[in-house]
Amino acid sequence: RLLANNGLIGSxxxxxxxxxxxxxxxxxxxxxxxxxxxxxxxxxxxxxxxIVTWIETKYxxxxxxxxxxxxxxxxxxxxxxxxxxx
Length: 86
Description:
single chain; mainly alpha; 4 helices; RNaseH-like_sf; Integrase core domain-containing protein; Transposase_IS3/IS150/IS904; Integrase_cat-core
């Protein structure tokens, strides 16, 4: 009911399907540890800015992803773009 009252729709994977959403679970765990739980946020705009800053300066540029061959998302994107430009 809480979701509906706030205009949201819940999403659930299959029961006991740990791999269904593992990458997003990992991302949100890191987001919670590195941004959400670091302080009490005064307003949504401050939190939004902190999330975007963390994603763009730390997560996408420094964190190597196993699914991307141990490259960061930025490195992967640059290699992919160069390969497709040729």
